[in-house]
Amino acid sequence: MWVGLSDGRVIGVPLAWFPRLLHADAAARAAFNLSPFGIHWETLDEDISVAGLLAGRGDMGRVGAVA
Question: Does residue 18 contact residue 58 with C-beta atoms inside 8 Å?
Answer without folding.
Answer: yes
